[in-house]
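Provenance

Sequences were taken from public entries as deposited. Structures were produced by running a predictor on each sequence independently, with no templates supplied. The record for MARVEL domain-containing protein from Pleuronectes platessa is shown for reference.
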Amino acid sequence: MASSSTTMGNLPRGIGICTTIPDILYLPELIFGGLVWILVACTLVVPANPQGWVMFVSVFCFIMTFTWMLVFACGGHHNRGSWAAADFVYHGVAAFFYLSASVALAKVTLEKKAESNLQNYRLDISAVVFSYVATLLYFIHTVLSAIRWKTF
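Predicted structure for MARVEL domain-containing protein:
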């Protein structure tokens, strides 16, 4: 295997997280996850339970992804095989959480279509779209992390 920083088998360090696959997905995950967080926070929270789950998932994944990105950027990973496996597990859990949050958010949005004002409905629709985009990004990152993990 080549020692280039762009190969799947290497865990990146420093600015390498902006040039390697799947680590280049950290920034879009943060952007779309942050948009979900902001859009859900801007709307009327009724019913509170599904919206609360969406907020938990978006805030949790935002903070964890940012922390995970910092660990890789600062070179805090030493045992490469373990970190590659942990990267796969984290992104798999995040993809599952985001999928469950996206489905709950879409259900609530469809149910309150008739009773909410147009502005809140548009914000909710945007949050649903961005939530599914974040789910897709985390899923792609999971698959690519699994491939990288298997190359060790």
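The chain has four helices and no strands.
Helices lie at 26-42, 48-73, 80-111, 118-150.
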